[in-house]
Amino acid sequence: MLVPEEYIIEETEIDERELERDPPGVHLRYNHTEPSVISDGVDFIAVIEQGGDEFRIDYWGYAFGRMYITSEGVQELGQRLSYEDDDIPSWTLVPETVDANDPPWWLPDGTAIDPTVACDNCEETVSVREIVTPRRPPVDMEGAVFCRDCWEQ
Ligand SMILES: [Zn+2]
Known about the structure:
By secondary structure, this protein is mainly beta. The chain folds into 2 domains: 5-112, no CATH class; 115-153, no CATH class. Helix content is 8%, strand content 28%. It has 2 helices and 10 strands. The chain has a 6-stranded antiparallel β-sheet with strand order 1-5-4-3-2-6. It has a two-stranded antiparallel ribbon with strand order 7-8. A two-stranded antiparallel sheet has the order 9-10. Strand 7 and strand 8 (125-127) form a beta hairpin. The protein is globular, with a radius of gyration of 17 Å. The termini are far apart. The structure holds zinc ion. Zinc ion is lined by residues 119, 121-122, 124, 146-147, 149-150. Zinc ion binds at residues 119, 121-122, 124, 146-147, 149-150.
């Protein structure tokens, strides 16, 4: 369940093909950085404001669907984006869908629109959406966080 039942106004049956390929709204993406783990949940959520106290949520991944939720529900979803500075967030915003100067009110305080982290190997700063955090570091490398260039070497 994406949000507690009490926040769901309506859930609609929908064919997967009906979900738009590029829905409007603010997009949240599951940050899949561990290559040996297969993600088996929802990994994409679009939050589309409907006016008033209603938001449409289109989501997909292993499961998919559409629901209408309250503003409390959206705040609950926003909590997925809260994380400690030195952590790799498990959910991130798609920065192109957010106005950094006027971020959505339902984001937790201090949410970074496009957080970055340094690669443990080359020390290059990269977006947390472009990293790999393998269970074991590649041969000849130390650390836990790698940029894609180092990982693919
Ligand atoms: Zn690197």
